[in-house]
Structure to design on (251 residues):
């Protein structure tokens, strides 16, 4: 697989690897190459474009990180199947968006308990040491594969003791804004790459031979409660090898 009539423009300031990445990505988006098609080897791409192996590897890494390809050790690199691409309008209500797309999800509550905040939560959520937190850990599956894990840190004074039944049937967005009728006034998301611990890797079914990197999203919600602004904090862990997530919002 390679883009036809494409050559590296050496007069551009744009890095060579990014020129190759953009051309390949455009052809994949345009369905020029069928899903599952195998790419040429790194050495073949090097010879075709007269670039170093480092350049080719950087271009392939960019394609992988953006969900265009999947790399299988010992087999090669392939165009990712489109069924594995999930378009999500709001990262804060992923379950709702999946269901709107007709995708059946299954939610499993891994943990629900009352905790006292550690130093990290005290700092992140601006809490006192004595304030109780309802901690919820939930695994979401689709296509019979684990998609992501959510760890929710909910001030008990805001939410009370949310039942497991409510947690498995509703998104956190609906629980907070509709069922509990809290006014969400601001949200912030921070996306970083992270190396999973053993428990997370096992839950997301990340095999030892797979890429040992997950997408880790921190979400901060500001809600109004009794005319006071309070923070709700989430951590989401996505297995990027099981699908591509697009966080998109129309203004």
């Amino acid at each position: 697989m390679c883009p036809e009539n494409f050559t590296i423009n050496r007069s551009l300031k744009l890095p060579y690897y990014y020129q190759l990445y953009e051309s390949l990505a455009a052809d994949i988006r345009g369905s020029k190459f069928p899903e599952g098609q195998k790419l040429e080897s790194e050495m073949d791409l090097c010879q075709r474009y007269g670039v170093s192996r480092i350049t080719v590897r950087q271009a392939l890494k960019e394609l992988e990180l953006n969900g265009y390809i999947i790399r299988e050790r010992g087999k090669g690199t392939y165009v990712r199947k489109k069924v594995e691409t999930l378009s999500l309008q709001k990262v804060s209500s992923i379950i709702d968006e999946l269901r709107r797309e007709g995708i059946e999800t299954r939610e499993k509550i891994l943990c629900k308990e009352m905790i006292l905040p550690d130093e990290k939560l005290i700092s992140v959520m601006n809490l006192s040491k004595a304030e109780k937190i309802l901690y919820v850990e939930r695994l979401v599956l689709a296509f019979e594969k684990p998609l992501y894990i959510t760890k929710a840190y909910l001030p008990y004074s805001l939410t009370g003791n949310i039942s497991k039944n409510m947690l498995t049937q509703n998104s956190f967005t609906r629980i907070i804004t509709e069922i509990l009728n809290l006014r969400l006034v601001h949200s912030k998301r921070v996306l970083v790459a992270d190396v999973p611990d053993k428990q997370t890797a096992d839950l997301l079914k990340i095999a030892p031979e797979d890429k040992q990197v997950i997408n880790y999203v921190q979400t901060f919600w500001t809600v109004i409660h009794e005319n006071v602004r309070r923070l709700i904090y989430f951590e989401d862990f996505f297995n990027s090898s099981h699908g591509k997530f697009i966080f998109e919002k129309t203004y």
